[in-house]
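input
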Amino acid sequence: ALHYFVAGRYDLAWRHSRHAGERAAARYAPAAAAEAYARAAEAARLSPEGGADERSLDLESLGDALFLAGRSAEAADAYREALRTARGDPLREAHLALKLGRVEQRRGRYAVALRRLSLGLRALSGTDGAQVSAARARLQARYAVCRVSQGRYPDARRWAQRAVGEATAAGERDALAQAHLVLHTVELWSADPLVRLHATDQ
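output
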């Protein structure tokens, strides 16, 4: 793929770099995958065949690989760039906002994470359907997780309850499980200290 890129054959460089990234990701080699996806995204930018949608997907895959490699700040940069090329698609914007919220939460930047998640929810306003409900549930559940991390238990409970409703209606199991975990955590840490000590010893 590299020799195609150097030769200016960006269409071939894009395809081969993306395939190399997919192979590296399948081998659980995130550093190699990140290198390949970074080249794919740049080739997509330069290739007449690589549109904004394709580049956005490569940038998202780059962010995923960087996230797995523990390079959170770089992952956030990749997701933000992917989001910039995905404007106008509410579901895609919400999907990338969720990933940005997750990576910012990992970095301990909770206020930034919450802003990203709020923007994802805003992108879905005025739209409906099962996919929209599922996306909204995932965003709400992640919001609840962030509020737990901040020690804001009443607000975490409210967001988790919203996520339970949306997830149940949409059949979104992951968000439902995450929301129930938040509710359990809130109940545990809001309990009497002796009750909490007994529960954690079980």
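quick obs: The CA atoms of residues 87 and 133 lie 19 Å apart.
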